[in-house]
Every structure is written in C-alpha cells, then in structure tokens.
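Journal club prep, notes for RB
We'll compare a predicted complex against what the paper describes. Inputs for the calcium ion case:
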Amino acid sequence: MFKTVEIKAIQIICERVDGDPGNELEVYGSLGANVGNYDDDLNYVVRQGKFLWQREDDNYVNISPGNPQKIEGDNSFKFDMSEGDHFQIGGQLAEYDDSSANDELGHPDKTFNFNSIPDNHILTFEDGEPNGQMVKAEFSFSVITHWP
Ligand SMILES: [Ca+2]
Ligand SMILES: [Ca+2]
Ligand SMILES: [Ca+2]
C-alpha cells in the first residue's frame, strides 16, 4: 500500500503581539515540508523536500490578531510515500524590528508517520518570553490511499 500526500501551507496567524508597535507583527522566515524515513541508526533522512513559504527580513508581512495571512502561490508539496516513510512540516519564523534586534520566534517541526496522518496541523512559534509574541502556521494534509 502507498499514499499520495499533498501538504499545503494555509495561513499564518498572529496570536499575541506583546506590545510590538502598531499591534501587528512583521513576520518573515520560511515554512516547508519534506518526506523521508529513518535509517538503521534511527537518523531521519530526507528524500525530497520543498519550501512552502519564504520571506526575507526586508520583505516581511504585517500580521495582526484576527487577520491571518493567507499563503498563496506555490504553497503545496505533493509526494508518494510507502509503509515506513515519514513526513515532516517545519519552519523558522522571526519578527522584524527597525529600532532593535529582530525577535527570533523559533523553529518548531512535527513528524508524521505513514499510518497516522491527520487532516491538518498547526505549528506554534514563540519568542520564549512569558506571554510573549506568538504566531501559528496552519498546514493541511490530503491523502489518497492506493492499494497495490
Ligand atoms: Ca518585536
Ligand atoms: Ca509591529
Ligand atoms: Ca516588529
């Protein structure tokens, strides 16, 4: 049995601004996905991957609470996987400031295996401060199962 999976990066949501000027965050960085599996030493080996959203720090997007940034353009990654394969979503986001150093919001990822693929998943990015800046990235997964 194998599966054709399509991952889409849907939107970036601003959960908490934490006093950043303008009540919005200036978000840049990258989101992506890959497919691979674990070798005999249990190291994850990427077979194929793709960026689903990318912005440099001079091309950030303004995101305020309640106004998610829809991700458009080439935002999907479609691949085949078989029993034993895994896929990952992940990203690295940061927040631009012009009068001080930019804020790093971390680089979370999440791995899924062949047999447990949900309809969607949300990654949470935070600056690490108590009640600090928080951004979420939503991904959707659609799966077509093939029998041999
Ligand atoms: Ca800031
Ligand atoms: Ca701002
Ligand atoms: Ca800012």
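Talking point for the session: Residues 20, 26, 95-97 surround calcium ion (ligand 3) (CB under 6 Å).
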